[in-house]
Write a structure and sequence with these properties.
This protein is of the alpha+beta class. The N and C termini lie far apart (57 Å).
C-alpha cells in the first residue's frame, strides 16, 4: 500500500490527531470528575489549606503524607514525591514562595489520590530509602 494510503487509512480509523485530541479531552474530563468526587468525599473545611487537604487525603488512604521543605538545587526539580512502604513524602523547594510551594505539593497529590496497592518495586528498581 503506498505511503499516502497508509496515512489516510490510519486517520480514517481514528489514529490521527483528532483522536488524540479527543482522548486528551476525555482524560481531562475524567480527571476533573475524579477531583470533584474526591473533594466531595473529603469535604475539607474552607478556606482550604494544602496541609489540611494532605491530612484528609492521608486519612482516607490510610497512608501518611509527610511534607518536607528542603533546599533543593536551583538547577533541579522544585519538588520530589517519594513513595515509601508505609508513607509518602513530598519534598518541596524551601527557597520558593509559599504559593509556589503549595503549587508543588498540589502537583504531587494526584498520584496519591487512590489507595496504594501493596506491590513490590518494579523490575530493575531498588529501594533507596529506609
Amino acid at each position: 500500500m503506498p505511503g499516502g494510503q497508509v496515512f489516510r487509512k490510519a486517520f480514517r480509523h481514528g489514529v490521527g490527531r483528532a483522536s488524540v485530541v479527543e482522548n486528551d479531552r476525555r482524560r481531562d474530563a475524567e480527571l476533573r470528575a475524579h477531583g470533584r468526587r474526591l473533594m466531595r468525599e473529603l469535604a475539607p473545611p474552607l478556606p482550604l489549606r494544602v496541609t489540611t487537604l494532605c491530612a484528609l487525603l492521608a486519612e482516607q488512604r490510610g497512608t501518611p503524607i509527610k511534607l518536607l521543605e528542603w533546599e533543593l538545587p536551583a538547577n533541579g526539580p522544585f519538588g520530589v514525591l517519594l513513595s515509601r512502604q508505609h508513607e509518602d513524602v513530598i519534598v518541596y523547594q524551601a527557597k520558593a514562595t509559599r504559593a509556589h510551594q503549595e503549587h508543588i505539593i498540589l502537583a504531587a497529590l494526584p498520584s496519591r489520590t487512590e489507595k496504594r496497592a501493596a506491590a513490590a518495586p518494579a523490575a530493575g528498581c531498588r529501594a533507596t530509602a529506609p
